[in-house]
Design a protein that fits this description.
Layout: H1 2-36, H2 39-59, H3 66-69, E1 76-82, H4 92-109, E2 113-119, H5 121-130, E3 133-138, H6 147-162, E4 168-178, E5 181-190, H7 214-288
Parallel strand pairs: 1-2, 1-4, 2-3
Antiparallel strand pairs: 4-5
Helix pairs in contact: 1-7, 2-7, 6-7
Length: 289
C-alpha cells in the first residue's frame, strides 16, 4: 500500500507542476506575441544600422581613428553577454554560455585578456562561477535594464575603446528568426568593418568630405552604432528567451502528461496486486479453518 501512496503523491506533484508549466507557457506566449509585432521593424532597423555603420567606415577610412583603423595589437577584448534572468527556457542560456566558454578558450591561447559586460543573471552567475572578469553587470528584466542603463553601459564601453583600454568590442547573444529557430551569434561592434571586408568582395574606397571633423565624427558614429546595436541584440534576446521558454514548457507539459499516464498505470497494477493478495489471504484462511 505504501507504493500506491508514493505513486499517488508523484501523480499529484506532477499535476501541480503542470499547472506551473502551463502558466509559464501562457505568460511567455503573451509576451512573445507582444514583442513579435516588432520583429519586422527590428529586422529593418538592424539592417539600416549595419548599412549606416559600413557607409561611415568607408567614409572615414582615411581618418586615423581606432574606430575605423583598429589597433595594431589586440591585448584586451570587451564582450557584451546577453542571457536571461531565469532558467526553464531550453538552451537559451546554455548555448550562450558555451559560446562564451569557447571564445574565452580561443583567446586564452592567444594570451588575450577578456572583460565582460554581463546582462542577465544567468550570465552573471556563470561568469562568477568560471571566475571570468566582469566589468559591469545588470539583470535583463525590462523594468530593471532600462534604455538609460543601456546607454550608460554603451558609453562606458566606447570610452574604454577610444581610450585604448580595450582594442575590440563584441556582442554575444541569441538572434531570433522564428519560434523554432534562434541562433547564438558573436558580432564585432568595434572597430567598424568596411563593407565587404573579409569576404573577398571589398569595395573600392571613394574619397569623402566629412563634417564635422573626421575624428569627432568617428567618435559620434561609434557611440551611436554601439548603442543601437546593443538595443537590437537586447530585443533579439528578449524574443529568443520567451520563444525558447514557450517551446520548453510545451514539451515539458507533454512529457509530464506521459509520465502521469505511466504512474497511473503503475498505480492501477499495484492496487490490483494488493487486492489479489488480500483475496488469496482470505481464501487461504477459510480453507485452513
Amino acid at each position: 500500500m505504501s507504493s500506491i501512496r508514493d505513486l499517488g503523491s508523484k501523480i499529484n506533484s506532477l499535476k501541480n507542476m503542470q499547472k506551473v508549466m502551463r502558466a509559464m507557457n501562457m505568460i511567455s506566449s503573451i509576451k512573445l506575441r507582444k514583442l513579435n509585432q516588432f520583429q519586422d521593424s527590428l529586422t529593418i532597423f538592424t539592417k539600416a544600422v549595419n548599412n549606416q555603420a559600413a557607409d561611415a567606415a568607408a567614409a572615414l577610412s582615411d581618418i586615423a581613428s581606432p574606430a575605423v583603423t583598429g589597433f595594431e595589437e589586440v591585448s584586451r577584448i570587451h564582450v557584451v553577454l546577453f542571457t536571461g534572468d531565469k532558467g526553464l527556457c531550453g538552451t537559451h542560456n546554455s548555448s550562450v554560455q558555451r559560446a562564451l566558454e569557447k571564445f574565452m578558450a580561443e583567446n586564452r591561447k592567444k594570451t588575450t585578456q577578456v572583460e565582460i559586460t554581463a546582462i542577465g543573471n544567468k550570465g552573471i552567475k556563470f561568469c562568477k562561477r568560471k571566475e571570468y572578469e566582469i566589468f559591469q553587470q545588470s539583470e535583463i528584466g525590462e523594468r530593471i535594464f532600462t534604455q538609460n542603463q543601456l546607454k550608460i553601459f554603451s558609453d562606458n564601453m566606447v570610452m574604454r575603446f577610444l581610450g585604448g583600454t580595450v582594442q575590440q568590442i563584441f556582442t554575444m547573444g541569441n538572434t531570433y528568426y522564428s519560434t523554432l529557430r534562434q541562433e547564438t551569434e558573436v558580432q564585432q561592434l568595434l572597430p567598424l568593418k568596411l563593407p565587404g571586408k573579409g569576404n573577398g568582395n571589398e569595395v573600392s574606397r571613394v574619397p569623402f568630405y566629412v563634417e564635422p571633423e573626421g575624428l569627432e565624427l568617428a567618435e559620434a558614429v561609434s557611440r551611436r552604432f554601439v548603442y543601437f546595436k546593443l538595443q537590437s541584440v537586447l530585443l533579439h534576446s528578449y524574443l529568443s528567451e520567451h520563444s525558447a521558454r514557450m517551446t520548453a514548457m510545451e514539451n515539458a507539459t507533454s512529457n509530464s502528461e506521459d509520465l502521469i499516464q505511466k504512474y497511473v498505470s503503475m498505480q492501477n497494477h499495484a492496487r490490483q496486486a494488493a487486492i489479489t493478495n488480500e483475496l488469496i489471504e482470505i481464501i487461504s484462511g477459510k480453507e485452513a479453518l
